[in-house]
Structure formats: structure tokens, C-alpha cells
Design goal:
mainly beta, 8-stranded antiparallel barrel, 1 helix, 8 strands, about 10% helix
Length: about 210
């Protein structure tokens, strides 16, 4: 996907934000939890990654939601960047603190600007060898890590959600699209820091109104 598609997506979401503002009534989301589950596309090291992302926001004020963001992706690659990997594999994990300010908020639509900042971990592994790791589910075998890079990331973006299903009881189900730009800061063990920056396009569903009596 070319960079101009990213900016087109921003304009597309902005257009719908204006439409939603003109055709919806005011609605307050104070003390409400929203969870977004998305499939995303983003370039990393000049390769197109498809992964999974999840955002969870609690609205501490009528238009302001704060919470956390998580994303994960994995891809087989053809180069080992000189680290000695026979079957190179690249994994990406991002964890951050998310803040969103809704400029459109109604029972049928939400559009907001958001800012995520946190940590990204990019792991270059070798699928020809495995090692045993332990987690809460017990031991499991994973590819051996050959190099690992850590980044501080800042991601400004825009999220638009449009209601798909209305229920008498919360939560309601929304179609959600998200466009943002990831800026990575750090000194990687492989590649250049700018190789880990890029656009992020996501689409999925949101559950809005979870535990809104908290």
C-alpha cells in the first residue's frame, strides 16, 4: 500500500465524521468502556505486515477516553540481516497508553482523534531452531531469537466507529476503522529506525458501553 492511500483514508474518515456530526444527536459517554478489536496492515522493514490490534478505552469524561493499546504481527522473511538466521522470522509487538478525544459522539457514530505512545519490540528469530519458554499455560516451543530491537513509539491517528447492532442492553456493536502513523525512536540491532516507522490501517468491530455503570 502506497503512502498516499494512508492520507486518503484519513480524508475518508474525516468526511464521515462531518456526516455523522450533521446527522446525529449529542450523546454522552462518561464512565463508559469501549473495546476495539481490529485486523491491521502496516509496513515494517519495507515489508507488508498484517496483524491483530486491540484498544481498550475508559471514558473518564464525556469526550475523553484513556486506556491501553496492543498490537501483534508476525511474518516470514527472506533475509537475516547478518545475524545468522537460517529461516528468518520477524515478530512485532506494540504496547502503549492510548488517549482519544471524540469530536463526534452519538448513539450511532463515534469519531475521534487519538494519540498512542509506548513500546514496540521487534524480534528477528530463526524458525530452524526452537527453545522452550514458560508462560501461564505451561511450557511451549518457539523459534530461537537472534536479535531484538526496542523502540519508543508515538502514534497519532483517527478512529471512526459506526453502529452495526443496537441492543437494549449494553454493549452495542460498531464497525470501526482506524488510520494512524507510527513514529519509532531507537537504535535497532538490524535495519534503521525509519524502517520501523509507517502508516497503520485497521478495520474491525467495537463493543461500546461495556460496564458503563462503573
Amino acid at each position: 500500500m502506497k503512502p498516499h492511500y494512508f492520507f486518503f483514508s484519513i480524508l475518508f474518515l474525516s468526511f464521515f465524521s462531518v456526516n455523522a456530526q450533521q446527522n446525529s444527536q449529542s450523546f454522552s459517554s462518561d464512565k463508559e468502556l469501549a473495546v476495539d478489536l481490529m485486523i491491521f496492515h502496516s509496513p515494517i522493514l519495507n515489508r507488508n505486515f498484517v496483524g491483530f490490534a486491540a484498544d481498550a478505552k475508559y471514558y473518564v469524561a464525556p469526550n475523553w477516553g484513556t486506556g491501553f493499546s496492543f498490537s501483534i504481527a508476525n511474518k516470514k522473511i527472506s533475509t537475516d540481516y547478518g545475524v545468522g538466521s537460517a529461516e528468518p522470522d520477524l515478530s512485532y509487538i506494540g504496547i502503549g497508553w492510548l488517549n482519544q478525544w471524540d469530536v463526534v459522539q452519538s448513539e450511532s457514530a463515534r469519531v475521534g482523534f487519538n494519540l498512542n505512545n509506548g513500546l514496540a519490540i521487534v524480534n528477528l528469530r530463526d524458525r530452524s531452531e526452537t527453545e522452550v519458554v514458560w508462560d501461564e499455560f505451561g511450557p511451549s516451543e518457539v523459534p530461537v531469537s537472534r536479535a531484538r530491537s526496542f523502540f519508543y513509539v508515538v502514534e497519532p491517528g483517527l478512529t471512526a466507529s459506526f453502529r452495526l447492532v443496537k441492543t437494549k442492553n449494553t454493549p452495542n456493536i460498531f464497525l470501526t476503522t482506524q488510520a494512524k502513523y507510527r513514529k519509532a525512536f531507537g537504535s535497532p540491532e538490524f535495519g534503521k529506525s525509519q524502517d520501523f516507522s509507517g502508516y497503520f490501517i485497521g478495520v474491525g468491530v467495537s463493543f461500546i458501553g461495556l460496564f458503563d455503570t462503573l
